[in-house]
Amino acid sequence: MPLRSTARTNLVDLVIAQMESLISDGEWEVGTKIPAEPLLVEQLAVGRNTVREAVRALVHTGMLEPRQGDGTYVRADSDFGAAVQRRLRRANVLDAYEVRASLERDAARHAAERRTPEDLAALRTALAERRTAWESGDTDAFIDADMAFHRTVAAAAHNPVLAELYGHLSDGMRATLQSVIGAPVPDSVRHQIDAHDAIVDAIEARDAAAAEAAVLAHLAEGMAALREQPPAG
Questions:
Q1: Do residue 71 and residue 170 come from a single domain?
Q2: Locate the HTH gntR-type domain: which residues (predicted)?
């Protein structure tokens, strides 16, 4: 979506709306740097102060993040997502993990009831990619693949609010997942390959109770690993 010249009275609000659309539509992806101020001024055909106010407003919501001497980066793809991430930064790790458990339990149950053949194919692909990432020994790749798998389960639940909330929550829990994977526990607990196989098998069988039980079993292991971590500091 190209930036459009703006010639209406409430310029700041209009520029904010355009920037929000660029972020939510994926033109400006989370983690990337937005165009420099002179370029935004040129593309939007508005004054420098208007651009600065719009950027400042999105920084305040948490969607953008200024980095001294580097530029401004996209931090979240919605103000809702930014609010979730702000709250997670103040949350106890186990409290946040319990919320994740509740969402994943419901997502798996609904996915078992509502999944389509296309959903099942996507789940099998995500499951295989998760296994491959673990075997590669790349922790970051494995965390990415694990989160992608659970987002796929959430998508198969066919509840857009649940899927969006889970996506924002999982984005904010990367450090927690790193703690689980780095815990001094057997590899079977760290990768939980069999547990994730069981989740997909239950969804394929349309067995909602089994899907829910499989999710709770794997999350219980993760929570136990977190409880074993020494206190910070």
A1: no
A2: 9-77
